[in-house]
Design a protein that fits this description.
There is one protein chain. By secondary structure, the chain is an alpha/beta fold. It folds into 2 domains: about 1-15 and about 95-220, Rossmann fold; about 15-80, DNA polymerase, domain 1. It has helices spanning about 15-30, 40-50, 55-65, 75-80, 100-105, 120-130, 145-160, 170-180, 210-220, and strands at about 1-5, 110-115, 140, 165-170, 185-190, 205. Strands 3-2-1-4-5-6 form a 6-stranded parallel β-sheet, with helices on both faces. The protein starts with a strand and ends with a helix.
């Protein structure tokens, strides 16, 4: 079998552990560049509140700056800051048992990773989390939401049909709809921003990566 994973909120805990750190860093950069803020602590709490109902960090910053009536150039400043390499002291945490699960699966199946973001930043996250890139037969980092194209490309290159390909991610629209359209088997990680939304569209919903092992082991029986 081929298993294609997302990275953020599928293998690593981005929303709960990393996003708040990046948002604070971004706020500090904007203030340093001239954003007028009366109270940095209150501004940060406001950003976190917005982020709870946002589809992503970009939308969070956009809404925050709109409410602050800030100049539009601060949005570009913020986005550039968010894609910078992580500070050396920032820790990245995997989801529970991610390393062990990946090792187990790699010994029995082909693994690939397709993640949306900046290449340097995503590789930095993997390294800090202790995820060995060599465990994946293919890794694609894309800045645009075109995962379906890369799913198909990876399947063709590795010689897998859609009925033998599993795609595991947390975002239904970005990660799993393109997979479903290709006929792949979809596994939704119930984590991050999209936790607890309606997941009737997908084949499996999981709360732990350990469940991926069970799904694949049962398939082989």
């Amino acid at each position: 079998m081929l298993i294609i994973f997302d990275l953020d909120d599928t293998l690593i805990d981005t929303t709960n552990r990393l996003t708040p750190i990046i948002l604070l860093k971004t706020l500090k950069v904007m203030i340093k560049k001239g954003l007028k803020i009366d109270d940095e602590k209150r501004a940060y709490q406001k950003i976190l509140k917005i982020d709870k109902t946002s589809i992503g960090s970009k939308q969070t910053i956009k809404k925050f700056l709109y409410e602050q009536k800030a100049d539009k150039n601060f949005y570009d400043i913020a986005i550039n800051s968010m894609y910078l390499p992580l500070d050396g002291d920032i820790k990245i945490f995997t989801l529970h048992n991610a390393i062990d699960v990946l090792k187990y699966l790699s010994e029995r199946h082909s693994l690939a990773l397709v993640s949306q973001g900046a290449v340097k930043l995503q590789f930095d996250k993997m390294e800090k989390a202790g995820i060995d890139r060599a465990i994946f037969s293919k890794i694609v980092i894309t800045k645009v939401a075109n995962k379906g194209f890369y799913y198909k490309k990876i399947m063709d290159e590795l010689g897998y049909k859609s009925n033998n390909t599993y795609v595991c991610g947390d975002k239904i629209e970005v990660d799993l709809v393109p997979a479903k359209e290709l006929g792949c088997i979809t596994i939704c990680m119930n984590w991050g921003r999209k936790k607890n939304i309606n997941k009737t569209y997908v084949d499996y919903t999981i709360n732990s990566l350990e469940e991926v092992k069970k799904i694949l082991d049962e398939k082989l029986r």
